[in-house]
Amino acid sequence: MGFSIQHLLVVLVIVILVFGTKRLKNIGDDLGGAIKGFRKALKEGEEQESSTKQDEQPK
Known about the structure:
Blueprint: H1 5-19, H2 21-56
């Protein structure tokens, strides 16, 4: 039992009526910024980890 396009449209209309388009835009911007920050932190952590491993290798 899956969701059809009609079900998704009804849910979208209800969400827009409850929150309003301006609030949904703000939520989307905040969520996008959070995801971007998370990805940046993961990338920095991987770079730091790889540089630490290189420093620990015997010469």
